[in-house]
Amino acid sequence: MTGATSALFIMDIKGQCLLCRDYRGDVSSLQAEHFFSKLLANEGDIDAHGPVAYEDGVAYMFIPHNNIYLMTAARQNCNAASLLLFLHRLVEVFKYYFQELEEESLRDNFVVVYELLDEMMDFGYPQYTEANILSEFIKTDAYRMELTQRPPMAVTNAVSWRSEGIFYKKNEVFLDVVEHVNLLVNSSGQILRSDVAGALKMRTYLSGMPECKLGLNDRVLLEAQGKSIKGRAIDLDDIKFHQCVRLARFESDRTISFIPPDGSFDLMTYRLSTKVKPLIWVEARVERHARSRVEILVKARSQFRERSSANDVVIEVPTPYDATNPRIKTSLGSAKYAPEKDAMLWKIKSFPGNKECMLGAEFKLPSIISEEESADRKAPISLKFEIPYFTVSGIQVRHLKVIEKSGYQPLPWVRYITMAGEYELRLI
Predict the structure, then answer these.
(1) Concatenated DSSP letters for 145-161?
(2) What's the rounded Cα separation, in Å, for the pair 346 and 328?
(3) Contact, 414 vs 201, CB < 8 A?
(4) Which residue from 11, 56, 130, 392 has the highest number of Cβ atoms inside 10 Å of its Cβ?
(5) pLDDT at residue 3 greater than cutoff 50
(6) pTM for the full model?
(7) DSSP label at 245?
(8) What is the DSSP string of 3-29?
(9) Which Gene3D superfamilies match (predicted)?
(10) Rounded Cα–Cα distance for residues 62 and 5 (Å)
C-alpha cells in the first residue's frame, strides 16, 4: 500500500515541536522543526503560505489553529486533500475532549493526545475520526481506568459513525431544510450577486441500525425514472454529503441512502447560483437640510407570497456618524438609534408577505462641520430575517423512509426555513 503519511507533528508559533507521533520512521522531528522554522523565516506571515509544501523529498501539509500548527509529513505520494481533512477532524476531536485546543491544553492532556493519535491513525493511514465513538473507549481521565475496555463495535465494523445497541422508546427523525439567501444590490438597484446556500440538517433518535432513504424533487432523478415532473423540479449542484451517505448509490441512481449517526448532523449541503428575486426590498432616501439636520425615509416591501411571513426581521440602516437627537416613526414594528453602530435598527417581529411599510427619521447634525466633511457614509443597508415553511430554490422532500429489522414505525418531521445570509443593499 502506498500513500501513507510518515509522521504527525504539533508545532508552536515559533516552529518548535510540542508533540509528535512517528508512524513510519522516515521523517524525524528535528527535520520537521528545521523545515518549519525556515518556512517561518522566509514567509514572515505563515498564514499567507499555502497548506502544502515540499522539501528534500518530504511533503508537508499543515493547518493553523489558535497558537499551534498541526502538520503531517510524508515521503510517499499521498493524498494531500485527505490528510488536510484528517487534520481538521483532529482539531474537532481535540476540541471535543479539551473544549479549547491550544498549547496549554495540549501540555495538560498529552497522555490522552497520544492515545487519540494512536487510534485515529494506524501506520500512517487515517482510521476513526468520530469523536462520539472515540469517547466510548478513550476517556479524558484515562489514567484512572483500572479495567481494560474493549473498543465499541463501531470501531470494528464498516459503520464507524454509529454505535450498536442504541435504543429509544420513541423513534423520531427531524429533518430541517435550511436555506441562506445571499444578495448584493448596488446603488442603481441592480443585483450584483445572488445565490442560495442550503443544508439538510437532521436529528435522529432511532433504535438499532436503521437504513434511511431520502427522496428529493431532483430533476435528474425524476427524468431517469420516467416520471412526469409535476410542480417544480430543481437541479442540485455543488453537493456535499456526510460520510454516512452511500456515494456510489447516489451516482448510479441519485438515491440518497444512508445509516445515520445518532443525534444531530448535516446530511447534505448544496449551493444554487441562480438569480434570486429579493425577498424583502428596501428603498431609502436621504435629504440633508443645510448643515443642521438630515431626514431619512425608508420603505420596505416583502416580495413573497401572502400566506408566508418573515419573522424577526432586522433592517440596519446606516446614519451619519455625528447624528444626534433622533426622532423615528414606523408604520410597522419598532426602530431605535444605535450610535455604537452608526445605524438605525428597524425590528419587525412578523412581516407578512406582499406588504409595504415605512420608516421616517430625523437627526440633528452639528453645524461646525462643513458640507464636504459631512459626506454620507457608503455603508450598505443589511437585513436579517427568517421565513418558515418556505424555500427559495423550491426543494422538496418527496419521501423519507426508515427501514430497521425490528420493524418499528418512526415519526418523521420535516420543516423548511429560509434565512438571510449576506443580504445587503447599497442604496444610500
Answers:
(1) --SPPPPPHHHHSS-TT
(2) 10
(3) no
(4) 11
(5) yes
(6) 0.66
(7) B
(8) ----EEEEEETTS-EEEEEESSSSS-H
(9) 3.30.450.60, Mu homology domain, subdomain B
(10) 12
